[in-house]
């Protein structure tokens, strides 16, 4: 059964069917929040919040709409709201959503740092961490979450062509940061 | 194709979403343009290497919290449906007056009409079905997890499903026979008990316990199964119990328990 059909059932009152969507997506959402700079506990709280919002706004879901796009719209809003709660006096947007990344990333070497497969994965991870939030987000959605460009366009509220351009710029920016870090490492 | 047009197609190329016609045109451009070829190849390696970054996994508590939240939400919905909204007619003074009038009407009507017992509303039975289906989903999902502690939690959840649930019964039997963790196998043996008391599943469950015994090699699980068979007074298990009694290589504790079970069945 498709995601849209399951969500339509939830919207029609069979709220227990949300468990099916939880089993399909909780890992992807968790990884999205981690990639956007959350700590493990915060990422788990946010995943919980996303599913809670799906219940609350279940009747607003239009089955003609892509379920993943709808879900990530909720996820983005939940992430922004969490930062807003922490900084009630500041104006918060997606650009600050991922700024706690530095707190999350451990300075201890991870297991991938002992692996060499053409690219230095430790450097790559650092390069991802240094990527501006909007660029990191679009790479996370297209590369890690495997979303279609059309769905990303729906989440970000822009044209499909704009998404492609932004993905291109994001991966090129990542490349630049990666090579800068690589040069620093050599010198 | 110009270099500018090629750049517009690079994202699709790296994402493996380039259409067939575009792919041919794009390849032709790359064959002729060294700068674009170099860029595509270099970034493609970076794009693919993103797959190698380690993946964080959520803790098992996240699932537990979700199902608690879902259960609480459902309870809230159910109680909201059964509690009337406060309106003027719910105020005590109005209720007293209405109660008097209704009592008089009710007494009059009651003499003339014989009504049946109150039936549970359709929503309530639907709700019960949904709760049962949710519990089944949780139990089955947890029993398939990689972590032994998660599978143990799945066994615990199985006590909350109806004992007539054949899917959960099958999952438990699979756990008894094939789970690599001895604690999960032991817990699954215990969890089969409710199923041996259900008219819909008792034959399958009893047969499963009989057939599980020869498959086990761990003494503690063998003893648990023997105890269960003795409790059920399951005569079909007698041949296997006799084999265990006569097997010189079998653990002495298991042999004694099999002797005891045979005596108890007589």
Could you give a quick summary of the protein structure above?
Chain A has 187 residues and is mostly helical. Helix content of chain A is 69%, strand content 2%.
The largest beta-sheet of chain A arranges its strands as: 1-2
Low-pLDDT sequence parts of chain B: 111-119
Record field, number of beta strands of chain B: 0
Q: Could you list the spans of chain A in which at least 5 consecutive residues all have pLDDT below 50?
A: 89-93, 99-117
The CATH class name of the largest domain in chain A reads Mainly Alpha
Which structural class do you get from the secondary structure elements of chain B?
mainly alpha
Tally of individual domains of chain A? 2
Radius of gyration of chain B: 32 Å
CATH topology of the domain at 131-265 in chain B: Leucine-rich Repeat Variant
Rg over C-alpha atoms of chain A, rounded to the nearest angstrom? 18 Å
The portion of residues forming beta strands of chain A comes to under 5%
- Hey, roughly how much beta strand do the residues of chain B contain? under 5%
Which pair has the most extensive contact? Answer: A-B, 49 and 41 residues
What oligomeric state do these chains adopt? heterodimer
CATH A-level architecture of the domain at 131-265 in chain B: Alpha Horseshoe
Write the CATH architecture name of the largest domain in chain A: Orthogonal Bundle
What's the helix-strand series of chain B?
Answer: HHHHHHHHHHHHHH
Instruction: Report the total helices of chain B.
Output: 14
Amino-to-carboxy terminus distance of chain B = 89 Å
Q: Per CATH, what is the topology of the largest domain in chain A?
A: Rna Polymerase Sigma Factor, Chain: A
Please, could you describe this protein's structure?
The complex is a heterodimer of chains A (187) and B (266). Chain A has 187 residues and is an all-alpha fold. In chain A, 69% of the residues lie in helices and 2% in strands. Chain A is built from ten helices and two strands; from the N terminus they run ααααααββαααα. Chain A has helices spanning 3-11, 18-35, 40-56, 67-86, 94-97, 101-104, 121-130, 133-144, 149-156, 160-186; strands at residues 116-117, 119-120. Chain A has a two-stranded antiparallel ribbon. In chain A, α2 crosses α3. Chain B has 266 residues and is mostly helical. Among the domains of chain B are: 3-47, no CATH class; 131-265, Leucine-rich Repeat Variant (Alpha Horseshoe). In chain B, α9 packs parallel to α12 (219-232). The longest helix of chain B has 23 residues, at 60-82. Mean pLDDT of chain B is 81; it is low at 111-119. The interface between A and B is large, with 49 and 41 residues.
